[in-house]
Amino acid sequence: MIEFDVRTTDDGIGVVVPRGRLNMVAARQLRETLTGLVEGGTSRIVVDLAETTFLDSSALGALVAGLKTARQAGGDLRIARPTESVLTVFKLTNMDKVLRPRDDVEGAFHG
Amino acid sequence: MFSEDRRQAPRDAPPGGVERRRRADRADLPAGVERRRQRAVDSLGLSAPVRQQRDDRFDRITRLAARVFHASWSSITVLDGDQAWFPSAQGFDIPLMPRQDTFCSRTTHNARLTVVPDASLDPDFAGLPAVVNDGIRFYAGVPLTDQLGNVVGVFCVYDHAPRTMPGSDLETLEDLAAWAQSELVGSSEMLRAGTVQKAMLPAAPIHRDDWHVDGICLPALAVGGDLFDFAVNNGVVHIGLGDVMGKGTGAALVGAGVRAAVRSTHPEVVGGADLGSTTYRVARTLQEDLDRGESFVTLFQCAIDVADGTLRYVDAGAGLCVVVRTDGSVERLQSSDRPIGILPDDTWTEHRGHLAPGDRMLVFSDGLLDLLADQVEWWHEVGRLVAAHEEPSSLLLAVRELATEQVSLDDVTAVAVYRRSEGER
């Protein structure tokens, strides 16, 4: 099982923190969480991957779908602090250029 | 393995009957067995749900069992970590229980039919909450296993009165358990789908001059989103290995389309067409389906000239291909292209390489990556694996063993290309 922390910063940026393994089952929840944020008016989203121990292709798909949804709403989706194993998945698939990992959550939408 | 069957010893029980152990000992499975078992539970999506939902497929079996056996309770039980949950239960309504507090943890351990005629007389069961608080006396449970024999659940009946169960009733119980097992592990419909999907793989390895090409595809569920294809024509071996996002039926449906799209480019590829262009066409064909299904595909393709070993390849975001040279060095075939279905304006670029006599190549899906000890610098481990096997068939057998041993959570696919050295002819 996986837990999601969802909060909104003072700047109106949605922060999603998945804890544990982001597999096919969790990817569905992640997708719904991201869609829910955008539909609720929060189209700038940071997914904090510091506590995500594993990420499979479904989870990557959920992030890409979330990215497209956020951009369609005039916002963006960024990822922060991926663990080494998660970063490997981004690099292998060359997705690190579309979803460029940021060093921290606060700065993900600055600079 | 020891028996807990008090009433009638199974045929393979040791003479002299029953070995007795303290309760704490028997509930603990050997670490390796339990790890594989837990991964099988995870892989089948049988983890304890956040919200319990009734499932008619299971309820009709437990209802029938309670009625047929005039039993107070019946359940399908799944052990997930330290907890037990009940995909279906009749007679009691408890979402979660500590694993140790269940009859079914013993059945899981035994991995065979377990009958307790009177739990109050049995020191191993007398202390369970169901016995102490609910007055349960009789229990009969049948383990439910996946295709590899891992116990992923238990089908059982309970009664408030002590009783025995005649052989004919045991047969009925086992029949109902087999039904529950097929519902839990995958319906027969899915098994047929798996057969169809297997038939879409190349029928035989390629043996051509110095070249030997073979592959395997091991879906985590009945069908999967991994695919591979190869054929040799016009003196060119064309290989494709794709991985559709996710696994299971949805991924398999998309995968069949990917295979067809790649096949349609085969005549051009062996005719020398640029793999970047043909991949672009594959992507255009799939784009709409992938967009609507919110899916994407990683796809590695290569074309090898069997006369001189020239290798052309294109990699749409897979990143998992190694070449092991005769001197033992390990090279990766890399690219900076993304998977198909990510961005509408993506393009793909053909790269070149060469396979000399004695060189070996392995291309695989991330399901295999997941099984490796080092997933960051994985190519060393894969390189050693390739170097250790003299034939594609034995290499692929080793991959299969790895997938079985570790219980793969994702589809595992690999294609091996070996070019014999001059001396081996």
Structural commentary:
The complex is a heterodimer of chains A (111) and B (425). With 111 residues, chain A is α/β, with parallel strands linked by helices. Chain A has one domain (3-105): Transcription Regulator spoIIAA. Chain A is built from three helices and six strands; from the N terminus they run ββαββαβαβ. Chain A starts with a strand and ends in a 9-residue tail after the last strand. The mean pLDDT of chain A is 91. Chain B has 425 residues and is α+β, with helices and mostly antiparallel strands. Chain B has two domains: 23-186, GAF domain (Beta-Lactamase, 2-Layer Sandwich), CATH 3.30.450; 191-424, 4-Layer Sandwich (Phosphatase 2c, domain 1), CATH 3.60.40. In chain B, the strands form three sheets. Chain B has a six-stranded antiparallel sheet, with helices on both faces. The longest helix of chain B has 19 residues, at 167-185. Chain B is elongated. The two termini of chain B are 50 Å apart. The relative contact order of chain B is 0.10. Residues 1-26 of chain B have low confidence and may be disordered. The A-B interface holds A 1, 23-25, 27, 31, 56-58, 60-61, 64-65, 84-85, 88-89, 91-95, 97-98 and B 42, 45, 47-48, 50, 243, 245-248, 294-296, 298, 317-320, 335-339, 342-343, 366, 369-370, 375-376, 409-410.
State the gist of this model:
Chain A has 111 residues and is of the alpha/beta class. Chain A has helices at 24-39, 57-72, 84-92; strands at residues 3-8, 14-22, 44-48, 52-55, 76-80, 101-102. In chain A, helix 1 links the parallel strand 2 (14-22) and strand 3 (44-48).
